Amino acid sequence: xxxxxxxxxxxxxxxxxxxxxxxxxxxxxxxxxxxxxxxxxxxxxxxxxxxxxxxxxxxxxxxxxxxxxxxxxxxxxxxxxxxxxxxxxxxxxxxxxxxxxxxxxxxxxxxxxxxxxxxxxxxxxxxxxxxxxxxxxxxxxxxxxxxxxxxxxxxxxx
Length: 158
Fold this sequence. Notes:
alpha+beta; SnoaL-like
């Protein structure tokens, strides 16, 4: 998906649709950062693929299990998104990119950390379900900048 995003003419999605996509992206990170990760699964299609720079997790259930495992760790994180842009959209699908700034560490607040752990491009391919709900069918997280010595607690590949 990312290679197909270059060279496209800018798409100006309706404010309503851009807000829907942004709300979904924020809701996922909210559940991971402040919740127990149980709701993450509901934003993905049953056959969704979640990719972390080459590692892949296949299916809503595997994504769910992976984030539940992560939630049991003592990992403290904040996923901050910016630059949400709808690259392509038609009636039943859309490609959305955003920039993710990840602040993370192990322990309880307040952790010493001024710099993000990573700055990542996130590419989401949304599809509209039969009931009209937008769901992520494919998500690729591509790190651009990673702090030296950074460790990530990501769901295991499946």
